[in-house]
Design brief:
Layout: E1 2-4, E2 10-12, H1 16-35, H2 41-48, H3 52-80, H4 82-101, H5 106-120, H6 122-134, H7 137-168, H8 172-192, H9 207-219, H10 221-242, H11 244-251, H12 259-280, H13 286-310, H14 321-343, H15 349-375, H16 379-405, H17 420-423
Antiparallel strand pairs: 1-2
């Protein structure tokens, strides 16, 4: 497959396996920025005199700016090109991570976390647009699944890396690691990733035009339903990720070295779901695959509530097995819904990816800042809260099926699918 370089001349497209590794690495920034510091919470809190609730704000502050800036990454890449936006984003992420490492107070750390959040989502958001620039149909689904598998490593290895770095040094070493990781990815993008969005297809970056494009996306009832289905479904798992310190240290009564016992099974479930999704590409109808994924999520919710209610003291491995099944179901659902939404607006995939990410990130920020502190004190409350998010995601998906597949949508409507082949994914 040929893809244009920045000058508009055709260049060789990266091999799909290499591209999956590169885009998966770029997508890791968000998870690494959250999960590597979990083991350091006690140490940072002790140094700055901060309690658990105050430390939780280092996550919610980061996610807030992550969400706000997500509205800019995609349209910016639609206007000036994917590669340039990714390179600048990585460079600024490295600088803000260095600022976090040198913070001397909690307000200073939170301030640099806010700056870190401004750029951490560039790889994930623009990377999705890169996939659809290069591939269609089952090939796009397969690559999206491979990227999800690589990305899924981050939450599993991040606490391990954080714990290892704490054993070797103090908490600033975690942020210096993020600086090094960003530098390696910057070099890889510079050498390996061509421009996939040529100048002839770029859109003007004007506030009025940008607002019009956002309104066009927001007016699509189908886009909203699919975006909320994905956001709520992932929120069921993110509630546990945001509550990992309370779940591992408080409910499972483990020390900071116990985080892998939670994250490895959970992320293994997500990676297995993404792998299964890739194997299903071209063999199983996309809507059927999403239905199977939601079925797994609903079964996991029921088992999770039952275990939390009937077992006053959670123990491994039973405490994480329902969450692992939940992650597997999410791994099946996410690639299909993400591609469906991108294909509703093929002429502005960056903008569609940004709005979709914004909805998900606002949801995650609320979970980290509001719902996790309220629910993490009890395993039963955590299980019930997770189940509510799963049910909300499933309800949005069912409403999409009923509204846009049981009835014919008028041609030209903002709710009408833009590309029929991907609608059947």
């Amino acid at each position: 497959m040929e893809t244009p370089d920045p000058s508009g001349a055709p260049g060789a497209s990266p091999h799909p396996a290499r591209l999956a590794l590169l885009l998966g690495g770029l997508a890791m920034f968000g998870a690494l920025s959250i999960d590597t510091i979990f083991p350091a919470f006690p140490q940072i809190g002790q140094q700055f005199g901060a309690d658990t609730l105050a430390m939780q704000q280092t996550i919610s502050a980061y996610l807030t700016t992550y969400a706000l800036m997500s509205l800019v990454h995609g349209p910016l890449s639609d206007a000036v090109g994917r590669r340039r936006v990714i390179l600048w984003g990585i460079a600024l992420f490295a600088l803000s991570s260095a600022g976090c490492a040198m913070a001397t107070s909690l307000p200073m750390l939170i301030a640099f976390r806010l700056l870190q959040g401004l750029t951490a989502g560039v790889g994930l958001i623009v990377g999705r647009a890169v996939i659809r620039d290069l591939f269609d149909g089952e090939h796009a689904q397969r690559l999206m699944s491979q990227v999800s598998m690589v990305f899924g490593l981050a939450p599993a290895i991040a606490p391990i890396i954080g714990g290892w770095l704490l054993g070797w040094s103090r908490w600033p070493a975690i942020f210096w690691f993020l600086v090094l990781f960003a530098a390696v990815l910057w070099i890889a993008v510079r050498l390996l990733l061509p421009e996939t969005h040529p100048a002839t297809r770029r859109l003007p970056l004007q506030p009025g035009a940008l607002g019009t494009r956002y309104m066009e996306i927001a007016r699509s009832g189908r886009f909203r339903l699919l975006a909320f289905a994905a956001a709520f479904n992932f929120g069921a798992l993110f509630l546990y990720i945001a509550s990992a310190p309370a779940f591992v240290l408080g409910h499972l009564h483990m020390d900071t070295r116990g985080f892998p016992w939670f994250f490895i099974p959970v992320i293994s479930g997500m990676m297995l779901g993404a792998f299964t999704s890739g194997r299903m590409a071209g063999r199983v109808d996309g809507a059927r695959q999403v239905a199977i994924g939601f079925g797994c999520c609903l079964a996991a919710a029921a088992c999770n509530i039952a275990y939390a209610e009937w077992s006053p003291q959670p123990v491994l491995p039973w405490a994480v097995m329902p969450i692992m099944l939940l992650a597997f179901g999410i791994g099946l659902v996410s690639p299909i819904i993400n591609l469906m939404n991108l294909d509703l607006f093929p002429w502005q995939r960056g903008g569609a990816s940004s709005v979709q990410a914004f909805i998900s990130l606002v949801s995650n920020a609320l979970i980290a800042g509001v719902w996790s502190p309220l629910l993490s004190g009890s395993t039963t409350r955590l299980a019930c809260g997770s189940a509510v998010f799963t049910l909300l995601g499933w309800a949005c998906w069912r409403l999409d099926r009923r509204r846009f597949h049981a009835e014919r949508v008028p041609a030209g409507s903002p709710d009408a699918p833009a590309l029929e082949p991907m609608d059947e994914l």
